[in-house]
Amino acid sequence: MKLFKMASLLIITSLIIVSCKSEDKKEMASINTADIYIQGTMDAELTSPPYVPAPVGNRTAKKLLVNMEILEKEGTMSDGVQYVYWTFGGSVPGSFIRTRVGDLVEFTLSNHPDNKLPHNIDLHAVTGPGGGAESSFVAPGHKKTFSFKTLNPGLYVYHCATAPVGMHIANGMYGLILVEPEGGLPKVDKEYYIMQGDFYTKGATGEKGLQPFDMTKAVKEDADYVVFNGKVGALTGDNAITANVGETVRLYVGNGGPNLTSSFHVIGEIFDNVHVEGGDLINKNVQTTSIPAGGAAIVDFKVDVPGTFILVDHAIFRAFNKGALGMLKVTGEEKKDLYSGIKQEGIYHPEGSTIQTMPESKEKKKEAVSTKDKTLAQKIADGKQVYMKTCFACHQAEGQGIPNAFPPLAKSDYLNADVKRAIGIVLHGKTGEITVNGKKYNSIMTKQTLTDEEVADVMTYVYNSWGNNKTNVSVKTVKEVKNK
Ligand SMILES: [Cu+2]
């Protein structure tokens, strides 16, 4: 609850008045944030990465109108590799929101009518249930408004929290919201917005073409791409961020995850100040700062010499083999007294801008030995395990599905009408319009990577649950559908 300045002020005060009690501090801080008076209304400036809106400076707290649109759209992950991103405001990470402590943010979330899925937003800067997720759940072609007061200064992640949450985040649904302290952060010359994310594709790293999201790899945390700002090369070459010798640079760095922690480092620089985890605590003279998934840090440093400084996740294979690499190009006079080496651009980028192709595993996936004489009860029990691991995120625990997104499996007329068609959906995935119990769905079910036995078990479990027609699906039938 403390303001940045307030914190240091309190330290000084407590040094002078040794008797200062901690209760008094708490009281002071809460009065200053929750009761800050709102004067007037303004539209929030939103920016796409790597840019940030203008600093708040000395402005008073206001009613701040934020209008954000969700867009599902195809983009480029790497040379020749396309990916369907789900975005807040059309970019990955989503639009940067800049507020000050005490603002009353009126947030309107619109879901574009061409989108396929409902979404919502959970802002870590919100004090309230679900960080706004419950109030902002919005179907395609609709919009929702809710409001919150910014009580705690700091840099916060926001993300989609619609089931399956991991999939929405993995597809790019995250961004940053900054809550500046009273009077704003200290002035610097350049500010940029960078956010790391890990991506999971059906094909191997670098495999060309439109790559669908891979749920199995995501669950295993086996990322094909680890990148800054949504794609390989978002911050390299002509896209590099820039500064001049002698300037101070502040980076607002977030990590959307969904899985990996970032070891954020700038090669050839030392962070003068790091707002650890995006909060009030300032650490000085830092080489590498750890940014957890769903967390952030504010770093600043003065650039003293010219050259290209490489931004990396220092878990270094991610940088050179999976894309977590950016550039800060600093121009100006050489400072031989500070650094006398040969200036060489791109020295830490030997693999070139395109990603290395990983050697493909020659080993064939072994199929679990199928137990022919498994009882129906055993199949149902094993099938439930598969369901809770694989299907549950979308179709939900009781097979009830999610309105407008994931069709029900409970009492599903579509399921009960045709066993082989249903098996085919689990084996191959499904897109296009279908009608289940009188309601239309037009969405994507990704192909499930399961053994034939697992498919037979999970389908048997589904058919023998929630009022379905009790079909016992055999491995033989699954193989028939597969080989058709
Ligand atoms: Cu979403």
From TrEMBL:
<dbReference type="InterPro" id="IPR036909">
    <property type="entry name" value="Cyt_c-like_dom_sf"/>
</dbReference>
<feature type="compositionally biased region" description="Basic and acidic residues">
    <location>
        <begin position="360"/>
        <end position="370"/>
    </location>
</feature>
<dbReference type="GO" id="GO:0009055">
    <property type="term" value="F:electron transfer activity"/>
</dbReference>
<keyword id="KW-0274">FAD</keyword>
<dbReference type="InterPro" id="IPR009056">
    <property type="entry name" value="Cyt_c-like_dom"/>
</dbReference>
<dbReference type="GO" id="GO:0042128">
    <property type="term" value="P:nitrate assimilation"/>
</dbReference>
<keyword id="KW-0186">Copper</keyword>
<feature type="region of interest" description="Disordered">
    <location>
        <begin position="351"/>
        <end position="370"/>
    </location>
</feature>
<feature type="binding site" description="type 1 copper site">
    <location>
        <position position="119"/>
    </location>
    <ligand>
        <name>Cu cation 1</name>
    </ligand>
</feature>
<dbReference type="InterPro" id="IPR008972">
    <property type="entry name" value="Cupredoxin"/>
</dbReference>
<comment type="similarity">
    <text>Belongs to the multicopper oxidase family.</text>
</comment>
<keyword id="KW-0408">Iron</keyword>
<keyword id="KW-0349">Heme</keyword>
<dbReference type="Pfam" id="PF07732">
    <property type="entry name" value="Cu-oxidase_3"/>
</dbReference>
<dbReference type="Pfam" id="PF00034">
    <property type="entry name" value="Cytochrom_C"/>
</dbReference>
<dbReference type="GO" id="GO:0050421">
    <property type="term" value="F:nitrite reductase (NO-forming) activity"/>
</dbReference>
<feature type="binding site" description="type 1 copper site">
    <location>
        <position position="160"/>
    </location>
    <ligand>
        <name>Cu cation 1</name>
    </ligand>
</feature>
<dbReference type="GO" id="GO:0019333">
    <property type="term" value="P:denitrification pathway"/>
</dbReference>
<feature type="binding site" description="type 1 copper site">
    <location>
        <position position="159"/>
    </location>
    <ligand>
        <name>Cu cation 1</name>
    </ligand>
</feature>
<feature type="domain" description="Cytochrome c">
    <location>
        <begin position="378"/>
        <end position="466"/>
    </location>
</feature>
<dbReference type="InterPro" id="IPR051459">
    <property type="entry name" value="Cytochrome_c-type_DH"/>
</dbReference>
<dbReference type="Pfam" id="PF00394">
    <property type="entry name" value="Cu-oxidase"/>
</dbReference>
<dbReference type="InterPro" id="IPR001117">
    <property type="entry name" value="Cu-oxidase_2nd"/>
</dbReference>
<keyword id="KW-0479">Metal-binding</keyword>
<keyword id="KW-0560">Oxidoreductase</keyword>
<comment type="subunit">
    <text>Homotrimer.</text>
</comment>
<dbReference type="GO" id="GO:0005507">
    <property type="term" value="F:copper ion binding"/>
</dbReference>
<feature type="binding site" description="type 2 copper site">
    <location>
        <position position="173"/>
    </location>
    <ligand>
        <name>Cu cation 2</name>
    </ligand>
</feature>
<dbReference type="GO" id="GO:0042597">
    <property type="term" value="C:periplasmic space"/>
</dbReference>
<feature type="binding site" description="type 1 copper site">
    <location>
        <position position="124"/>
    </location>
    <ligand>
        <name>Cu cation 1</name>
    </ligand>
</feature>
<feature type="binding site" description="type 1 copper site">
    <location>
        <position position="168"/>
    </location>
    <ligand>
        <name>Cu cation 1</name>
    </ligand>
</feature>
<dbReference type="InterPro" id="IPR011707">
    <property type="entry name" value="Cu-oxidase-like_N"/>
</dbReference>
<comment type="pathway">
    <text>Nitrogen metabolism; nitrate reduction (denitrification); dinitrogen from nitrate: step 2/4.</text>
</comment>
<protein>
    <recommendedName>
        <fullName>Copper-containing nitrite reductase</fullName>
        <ecNumber>1.7.2.1</ecNumber>
    </recommendedName>
</protein>
<keyword id="KW-0534">Nitrate assimilation</keyword>
<keyword id="KW-0677">Repeat</keyword>
<keyword id="KW-0574">Periplasm</keyword>
<keyword id="KW-0285">Flavoprotein</keyword>
<dbReference type="InterPro" id="IPR001287">
    <property type="entry name" value="NO2-reductase_Cu"/>
</dbReference>
<feature type="binding site" description="type 1 copper site">
    <location>
        <position position="314"/>
    </location>
    <ligand>
        <name>Cu cation 1</name>
    </ligand>
</feature>
<dbReference type="GO" id="GO:0020037">
    <property type="term" value="F:heme binding"/>
</dbReference>
